[in-house]
């Protein structure tokens, strides 16, 4: 009597058959992820629509040029307001903050990740994390009570030796240092922990083999960092800088505490004049009438657009540089 047996299913076939089975947990996770992404887009679109509707209502009644008028008096009759002064103050203070914070933050991140011994690197990391958790109003109070009085001497020095550049010329050298330059320094201190933390984590992701190969070829520690670490981490450094820039553009309470409420356009960054979008909204919202609030919302729409453009530009730079960073090796 012949006995027939069936051939067992090959392991590879069983493996592929199991791969096509979708588990309930995967479906739930996929749905939640997709729903979260859609919800985020809906929220962003709702904010944009709200700001646009209120902004159009304000701009239609504005008797000045919204983009070039150097005055803000939305409660007047007829109302006149423009965003030129606020855009200038916001952008210049953010540029000053980035120019100061980015090199220092990258240097601190490199020191923690590649130079400092572990017993020193850990406390430094905790200190940086703690600085990132300090509320904005605390930075503002510190800036108003400590930073402003102690920057008078620096302002006098800049006016004396760099006043010929016009940018660092100060009309009243003895005046209080409540200026765009002071705001830039304060913002630099505030965004320093953010850029440092992200850059530090990026540096730690550099493949160890890249660094060991450079050292084996006789490179010094700095040459190893320059040729292996920084190229790999370039896109991460850009992302960290854009995160810091986003906070600098939208910072409110710290700027409002330090900067004088004088929305006047001046190329002299040491003069106590100027303003930013967030600072102007905080200073004028309480006294604004219904139309004045629409005008402030219109300025908020401009800040919203600037932030989107900055983030879009950052994403484009990261995508362009990614293939040269060594991250895909």
Automatic annotation (TrEMBL):
Write out the entry's keywords from A to Z: Cell membrane, Membrane, Phosphate transport, Transmembrane, Transmembrane helix, Transport
The molecular function terms in GO held by this entry are: phosphate transmembrane transporter activity
Any one GO CC term of the record: plasma membrane
Domain (ABC transmembrane type-1): residue spans on this chain:
87-314
The organism's superkingdom is given as: Bacteria
Where would you find this protein in the cell? Cell membrane
Q: Where are the transmembrane segments?
A: 37-60, 80-112, 124-148, 180-199, 248-270, 295-314
Which Pfam families did the record assign? BPD_transp_1
Q: Which GO terms describe its biological process?
A: phosphate ion transport
Q: Which InterPro entries match?
A: MetI-like (IPR000515), MetI-like_sf (IPR035906), Phosphate_PstC (IPR011864), Phosphate_Transport_Permease (IPR051124)
The family database entries (CDD domains) matched by this protein are listed as: TM_PBP2
Topologically, how does it sit relative to the membrane?
Multi-pass membrane protein
What's this protein's function?
Part of the binding-protein-dependent transport system for phosphate; probably responsible for the translocation of the substrate across the membrane.
Report the sequence similarity comment from the record. Answer: Belongs to the binding-protein-dependent transport system permease family. CysTW subfamily.
**Protein name (record):** Phosphate transport system permease protein
């Amino acid at each position: 009597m012949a006995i027939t047996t069936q051939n067992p299913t090959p392991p590879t076939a069983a493996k592929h058959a199991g791969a096509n089975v979708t588990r309930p947990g995967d479906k739930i996770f996929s749905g939640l992820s997709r729903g979260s992404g859609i919800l985020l887009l809906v929220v962003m679109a709702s904010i944009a629509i709200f700001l646009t509707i209120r902004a159009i209502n304000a701009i239609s009644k504005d008797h000045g040029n919204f983009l070039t008028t150097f005055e803000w008096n939305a409660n007047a009759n007829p109302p006149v307001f423009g965003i030129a002064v606020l855009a200038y103050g916001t952008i210049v203070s953010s540029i000053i903050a980035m120019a100061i914070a980015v090199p220092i933050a990258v240097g601190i991140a490199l020191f923690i990740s590649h130079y400092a011994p572990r017993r020193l690197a850990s406390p430094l990391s905790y200190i940086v994390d703690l600085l990132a958790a300090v509320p904005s109003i605390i930075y503002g109070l510190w800036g108003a009570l400590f930073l402003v009085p102690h920057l008078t001497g620096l302002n006098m020095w800049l006016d004396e030796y760099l006043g010929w550049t016009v940018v660092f010329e100060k009309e009243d050298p003895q005046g209080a240092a409540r200026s765009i330059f002071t705001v830039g320094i304060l913002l630099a201190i505030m965004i320093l922990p953010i850029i440092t933390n992200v850059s530090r984590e990026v540096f730690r992701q550099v493949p160890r083999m890249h660094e060991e190969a450079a050292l084996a070829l006789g490179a010094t520690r700095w040459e190893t960092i320059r040729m292996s670490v920084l190229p790999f981490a370039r896109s991460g450094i850009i992302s960290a800088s854009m995160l810091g820039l986003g906070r600098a553009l939208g910072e409110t309470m710290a700027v409002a505490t330090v900067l004088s409420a004088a929305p006047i356009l001046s190329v002299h960054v040491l003069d106590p004049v100027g303003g930013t979008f967030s600072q102007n909204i905080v200073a004028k919202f309480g006294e604004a009438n219904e139309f004045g609030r629409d005008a402030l919302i219109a300025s908020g729409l401009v800040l919203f657009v600037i932030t989107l453009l900055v983030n879009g530009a950052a994403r484009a730079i990261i995508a362009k540089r990614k293939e040269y960073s060594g991250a895909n090796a």
